[in-house]
Design brief:
Elements (H helix, E strand, L loop, with lengths): L2 H26 L2 H24 L4 H32 L1 H12 L15
Helix pairs in contact: 1-3, 2-3, 3-4
Length: 118
């Protein structure tokens, strides 16, 4: 690949990474996330009330436990995204890591070696 076409290719790949950063930022600022966190609190309160009234083994309690666990997983995923967005905004190390791992980019004078075990 000629140097100019290789540079254009890298610019294109970098633009894709930047677009992912923008998309991640819009996800992190999504008001739905605040709504989910509020709903988790409401579910935990409802679960405590139901457990007192019906006992901890009631079907409704188990259903609430499953919903709370699902919401908690969503909250953890959001926290990971927020952390990634912060890293992408604050440091070039994360951008370089993404460019290398997701796009296979290398620095000048580096050789990319992909090892595939048998």
């Amino acid at each position: 690949m000629a140097a100019s076409s290789q540079a254009a290719h890298y610019r294109s790949q970098l633009a894709e990474v930047e677009e992912r950063v923008i998309q991640s930022t819009s996800i992190a600022r999504n008001p739905i996330i605040g709504s989910i966190e509020s709903r988790i609190s409401d579910l935990e309160l409802e679960r405590a009330q139901q457990a007192t009234t019906r006992g901890p083994e009631h079907a409704e309690i188990k259903k609430l436990d499953e919903q709370i666990a699902a919401n908690d997983r969503a909250r953890q995923a959001n926290e990971r995204l927020n952390s990634e967005v912060h890293d992408l905004k604050e440091g070039l190390d994360m951008v370089e890591e993404k460019a290398r791992s997701e796009l296979g980019m290398v620095k000048p004078n580096e050789v990319y070696v992909h090892y595939m075990p048998r």
